[in-house]
Amino acid sequence: MTVDWSAFTPASALAGGVLIGLASGLFVLADGRIAGISGLLGSLLRPVRQWVGEKALFVLGLVLSPLVWSLWASPPAIEITTPWPLLALAGLLVGFGSRYGAGCTSGHGVCGLARLSPRSLLATVCFMATGFLTVFVVRHLLPEVIR
Amino acid sequence: MNRLLAFLAGLLFGFGLLLSGMANPAKVLAFLDLAGPWDPSLALVMVGAIATALPAFQLARRRDRSLLGAPMQLPERRSLDRRLVVGSLVFGVGWGLAGFCPGPALTVLLTGHGKVLVFVAFLLLGMGLFERLEASTSQRSGGRR
């Protein structure tokens, strides 16, 4: 393994992580809810709705965040390298898998681990494992498929 | 007040994703590429996020209601079941293909990158398929899961 020190951004990564942690803490202490994006989004798709106001507003804040951000900062680098047919497949897998497994990077990986939940630890180990494995297969075993 | 804070929490969460690099799929893939030139930054995102959220969740789990009086809705399931494992494995494959998970995808939605629209459309389709499956399973078992 070689670490790409030129790409390593420890300060912004840590500071961004702290903001994510503060946001999750604020949401649970103020609204009593887990800031799990797949769960929030999924519950907004349900036909029988309970009161969804806070969930919808959290999602709205998330969606509007880059617009508010660019009011005083330069837009962050966003680079999408995956070709769109693979992106479509990926979207399907992320959507179905995160709902079937009851959480994603935020719900299990941040909130669940912060709650010291064994279920979330197992889920995080599973999605990290297939995440690493998938990138290995795509980039090092089938390099011609992507870019 | 509850709703205002929910909106602010979402906004702050998005800022965190943007600042940390989590909202940039190329950076996420560089973190997931252990065999390539590896960018370990995103491990620090998780460290920062978990360390900061931990005291809040420790306080939250001891309460029935939030500080603003909303019912505390923490997950109650404890079982380490097949659904949890299979779903998470499938989610990880999609995450590794795109470098997007649900939060960053929603954060990037309005930044004018056309490709994210494809991802989010199929993300919603995948979630819709899950709801269909749930509905048909609960029908077959007479409303019980």
Task: Explain briefly what this protein structure is.
The complex is a heterodimer of chains A (147) and B (145). With 147 residues, chain A is mainly α.
Model description:
- The complex is a heterodimer of chains A (147) and B (145).
- Chain A is mostly helical.
- Chain A has one domain (10-141).
- Helices cover 67% and strands 1% of the residues of chain A.
- Chain A is built from six helices and one strand, in the order E-H-H-H-H-H-H.
- The longest helix of chain A is centred in the C-terminal third of the chain and has 24 residues, at 118-141.
- Chain A starts with a strand and ends in a 6-residue tail after the last helix.
- The mean pLDDT of chain A is 92.
- With 145 residues, chain B is mainly alpha-helical.
- Chain B has a domain at 2-78.
- Chain B has helices at residues 2-20, 25-32, 41-61, 82-98, 102-108, 114-140; one strand at residues 37-38.
- The mean pLDDT of chain B is 93.
- The chains are: A mainly alpha (147), B mainly alpha (145).
- Strand 1 of chain A pairs parallel with strand 1 (37-38) of chain B.
Topology of this protein?
The complex is a heterodimer of chains A (147) and B (145).
Chain A: E1 2-3, H1 10-31, H2 37-44, H3 53-69, H4 84-100, H5 105-114, H6 118-141
Chain B: H1 2-20, H2 25-32, E1 37-38, H3 41-61, H4 82-98, H5 102-108, H6 114-140
Helix pairs in contact in B: 5-6
Give the helix/strand class of chain A. mainly alpha
Put simply, the count of helices of chain A is: 6
Judging from the principal axes of the Cα atoms, what is the shape of chain B? globular
Characterize the main sheet of chain B.
none
- Topology, number of strands of chain A: 1
Low-confidence stretches of chain B: none
Q: What's the end-to-end separation of chain A, in Å?
A: 22 Å
Mean pLDDT of chain B: 93
Order of helices and strands of chain B: HHEHHHH
**Low-confidence regions of chain A:** none
What letter string, H or E per element, gives the SSE order of chain A?
EHHHHHH
Gap between N and C termini of chain B, in Å? 36 Å
How can the largest sheet of chain A be summarized? none
Average residue pLDDT of chain A: 92
**Shape category of chain A:** globular
Oligomeric organization of the protein chains = heterodimer
Q: β content of chain A, as a range? A: under 5%
Proportion of residues in helical segments of chain B? 55-70%
Strand content of chain B: under 5%
